[in-house]
Amino acid sequence: MENISSIAVFYLNGLNETRSQKYIFFLFTLLFYLLIIIVNLTLIAAVLLEKSLHQPMYIFICNLSVNTLYGTAGFYPKLLADFLSDTHVISYTGCFTQVFVIYSSVLCEYSSLTVMAYDRYVAICKPLEYHAIMNTVTPGKIILILWVLLFCESIIPIVLVMRLPLCGSQIDKLYCENWSVIKLSCVDTTLNNIYNYIVVILQVSQAFFIVYSYTKIIRECLKSSEGRSKFVLTCLPHLITLFNFTITTLFDIMFSRYGSRNTPQILRNIMAVEFLVIPPLLNPLVYGLSLTQIRMKVRRLRKRKVNSRT
Fold first, then answer.
1. pLDDT score of 127 more than 70
2. pTM for this prediction
3. Residue pair 60/119 in contact by the 8 Å Cβ criterion
4. What is the rounded average pLDDT of the residues 272-277?
5. pLDDT tens-digit profile of 143-202?
6. For position 63, what pLDDT does the model report?
7. Selection from 67, 69, 65, 95 nearest residue 82 by Cα
8. How many angstroms separate the Cα of 151 from the Cα of each of 19, 65, 101, 102, 234?
9. With left for phi above 0 and alpha for psi between -120 and 50, is residue 291 left, alpha or beta?
């Protein structure tokens, strides 16, 4: 048995069955990661460069894309390096850095979607109060507070895990994540589980708030054709994003805790990375294609590039 004093690296076993085709996987992953970067940077640029988009809803959408780039940066570069390496290892410090980045990114995503639900609730159900509640500085303050609180919230599980003596260094995933490291512990992990349950309760409470907000929004929108149109244009993309992210993260959480080790490795990998693959690409496409102002700004950016080349 290993103990914490002898563990300098963790071994990631998720790629053991891909060595014969590692260059093909590397190429497709690289192209996919570049696509994620391009579409999210395009959306960020559209919001920052267009003054008419300097509104709370678009600022929160921009924050989602920034968080996407932050979260995927904690996963894809390491994965790409592992495809080109025969030994898939990550240092002790690197492992916990990756845990922190991915963990904080997930929390930020869900909290951002909760804030966006509140923004739509105020805009549709209390339109006369909207500009008083969501003034020009409110979104920036909310985003700043959100990131500070979530970084603090994400440090706690790292500290709780790092105090544990570990009896192994084998992680059956493509990346380091909190529960995979906890399972390597030689001692009781009750305190870690209690904190994780607290986080789950907080996330569930946010989910109830979102459901409550959209119940009110839908009731308000059904009163008129204009309200139904506003719901389709501004709320439906948010609901698609929320549903998509919730399902993919639930897949990972449930499979990490209750999935069988007899499941084929390729299926385990798919279940583990869905939330790092689907939402980062789908979110900016949903908002970019659904929201007219963003779509128009993206077209202008493309025209400028074409004109500058000619």
1. yes
2. 0.87
3. yes
4. 82
5. 999 999 999 989 999 999 988 888 888 888 889 988 888 888 888 888 988 998 888 888
6. 94
7. 95
8. 36, 17, 9, 11, 29
9. beta
What value does the mean pLDDT take over residues 197-223? Answer: 86
Instruction: Grade residue 2 by pLDDT with cuts at 50, 70 and 90.
Output: very low
Closest CA to 285 of 17, 53, 61, 51: 61
What is d(CA 233, CA 5) in angstroms, rounded to the nearest whole number? 56
Residue 117 amino acid letter: A
